[in-house]
Structures are given as C-alpha cells and as structure tokens.
Design brief:
This protein has 337 residues and is of the alpha+beta class. It folds into 3 domains: 1-130, no CATH class; 133-258, Jelly Rolls (Sandwich); 266-336, Phage tail protein beta-alpha-beta fold, CATH 3.55.50.30. It has 9 helices and 20 strands. The chain has helices at residues 19-33, 38-49, 52-65, 68-87, 99-117, 122-130, 257-260, 275-282, 311-321, and strands spanning 133-134, 141-144, 150-153, 158-162, 169-174, 176-180, 189-192, 196-200, 204-208, 213-219, 222-226, 233-236, 240-245, 248-249, 253-254, 267-274, 289-292, 301-307, 326-329, 333-336. Strand 7 (189-192) and strand 8 (196-200) form a beta hairpin. Helix 3 (52-65) crosses helix 5 (99-117) and helix 4 (68-87) packs across helix 5. The termini are far apart. It comes from Aquamicrobium lusatiense.
Length: 337
C-alpha cells in the first residue's frame, strides 16, 4: 500500500522528507477538515493498521495537536482573523468562518508545520506563534500600542498584546522591554513576566525575563506582585528595582537607571562588575557563543561604556583588558582562556 493518503491531497508546498510522516500529515489535515466523514475514518484506519510506522507517525502528530499551548495560541490567532474578517467592507462577499472553525484550521496548520520542521524547533516556533512583536538577536524595535503607550523591545525579545475592550495587557514572552505608559486611571496597564505581574496607571519602567523577572522603574510608580502568591508584592519608586522568582520577591533596591537602561540608546554601561556577568549580558546581543575555559577570568571585575552594535568587538576588548587569549572558531564560537 502506498504511504500517501488516497483521494485529493492538501497543498503540497509543505512536505516532510520522511514519506511516512508526510502521509500522516496529509491524513491529519483531511481528518480535521472532515471529522464526521465515516468513509475517511475507515480509510485512515486501514492505513494505520497497514504498518506500525503509520500509527507511530500519526500518534506523534496527535500528541502535538493536543498540546495546550498550541490550542491557546491558535485561539488567539482565530480571534484576530475574525476581527480582520469583520473589518472588511460589507459589500465584499467572502466565506465566513467562526472562531471555532478558524481555531481548527490554524491549529492543524501549526501542528503540521511544527512536525514538518522538527520537534526541536517547537519552543521557538511556539514563541513566534504567540508573539505580536519580536526582535532578533542584536535587534531593537520601538512601537506605539493601541492606547498610545510606547514600548521598546531589546534584543531577542517578544511580547503578546491584549487590548480587547477595556484591557491594557502585555505579556513579555522573552527578553526585555521598556514601557512608557499613557495615564488612564480607569484602565490599569498590566505587564506579565515569567513569574510576576506589574500594574501601573501611567509611568515608565522596564521588565526583563530570565532566571527571574527584573523590574526597574524610571519614573512614576508601579506595583509588582509574584503571580503564584499575590500577597508577595512590592511598590517601586523612581530609581528602584525588584526581582521576582519562583521563591518570591527580592528586597527593593536602588539602581542607576541611566546605566541599567542604557540599552535604549544602544549602549552597555557597567562599573566594577564580574566579567562573567558582563559576558552573560553581552551574550544576549551576540549571535554566536562565548566559552570561558579559565573560570578565574569570570571573577575579574571590569568597567566600561560600549556600543552594542559590535558585541563581538566588546567581548574581544574586555578579554584583552582581562589578560585573556581569544580564539574564534567557525560559527561565531569565541573561546576565552
């Protein structure tokens, strides 16, 4: 029996190099389009029973389909498509799909793409699927939100927006962002990080995700709460910061906002910081990888004021100042020893 699904085939522009997986993709899409077709179900069963590889490939695709993150992301995109459909002129005669139908089509497409591309790319693909705005490594981007507030994304960052109705909500999916929020006492502005939530009415602050969420306030006032335990919260005044982790909130501390937020103007500024910490920060702007062989180098304290548009040049300069030897391998791998 052929590995290809019989009958009319879906768009063949996306094909998996493995013919069994490719056939499973065909069956899967057709089944989502016609879930009540008993004849299709019978033919699918015959195909699954004909070879153990068929059942394994189809099961893998079904597992991808059932991921809750995929359903949430698909529903978000379905609502966007509904909104775009409604924005069209009333005179335009176009097919009408309700959100449930859109969700099935979008989720099916997403599952097909992720299986075709490979499961190892799933986290990055899901991030792109959820994000409304994102930046690549070394890139920064600024834009205006629907309420007139402004946001600036730092390197390798992504956000998802929710401004439906009276909501003013942003989820920082990855990286770092600076917010300059338009005051609206009736509509609090909320930012969700990995572990904490920030609520403001009109202020300017940054949020950075990673091993913890770091919130820095430039002006105004913000309330920061740990999502798992809302009783754990802190109020920040200008020039203060707090970190939120699964363990709770750090003590509120003073911070030099000019240095910590210098990335907005394309600079990195540090004073007497361990080289390891500076390299970790620079690594967010460098597309390659930095490996320190001599662990002692990481403890050397360094100071500097550098442009971020040449991250490799900064790394080399700091290594030279620390007395390290630099070896660059293909693929952008830098070894310090």
């Amino acid at each position: 029996m052929s590995d290809r699904a019989d009958g009319p085939q879906p768009d063949q522009t996306l094909q998996h190099p493995d013919p069994v997986t490719d056939a499973a993709l065909d069956w899967f899409v057709r089944l989502q389009e016609a879930p009540d077709d008993l004849g299709l179900q019978a033919r699918l069963k015959d195909w699954l029973d004909s070879d153990p590889r068929h059942a394994a490939a189809f099961a893998k695709l079904q597992n991808m389909w059932e991921l809750p993150e995929l359903g949430i992301a698909s529903a978000r995109h379905a609502s966007r498509l509904d909104a775009r459909q409604e924005e069209r002129t009333p005179m335009a005669r176009v097919p009408v799909y309700r959100s449930g139908s859109w969700t099935i089509r979008i989720a099916a497409l997403a599952a097909v793409v992720m299986v075709a591309a490979g499961i190892r790319y799933y986290p990055e693909m899901l991030l792109r699927w959820n994000a409304d705005h994102l930046t690549a490594t070394g890139e920064q981007s600024a834009f205006v939100l629907p309420d007139g507030s402004r946001i600036m994304l730092n390197t390798a960052s992504a956000v998802a927006l929710d401004f439906e109705g009276q909501k003013r909500s942003v989820t920082l999916l990855r990286g770092e962002a600076f917010f300059d929020v338009v005051s609206d006492p009736a509509r609090p502005f909320r930012v969700a990080g990995s572990f904490g939530d920030v609520e403001v009415k009109g202020t300017a602050f940054s949020v950075r995700t990673g091993g913890e969420d770091t919130v820095i306030l430039e002006r105004g006032r913000v309330e920061v709460a740990q999502r798992a335990h809302e009783a754990h919260h802190a109020s920040l005044s200008p020039g203060q910061m707090v970190e939120v982790s699964p363990a709770g909130l750090s003590p509120v501390a003073g911070v030099d906002t000019e240095s910590e937020l210098a990335w907005r103007t394309g600079w990195i500024i540090f004073q007497e910081k361990p080289l390891a910490d500076v390299l970790a920060d620079l690594g967010r702007y460098y597309t390659g990888r930095v490996i320190t062989v001599d662990r002692g180098l990481g403890h050397i304290r360094v100071s500097g004021n550098y442009r971020l548009d040449d991250a490799e040049g900064v790394i080399r300069s700091l290594a030279e100042a620390a007395g390290a030897k630099v070896t660059r391998l293909p693929g952008g791998i830098i070894i310090l020893r």
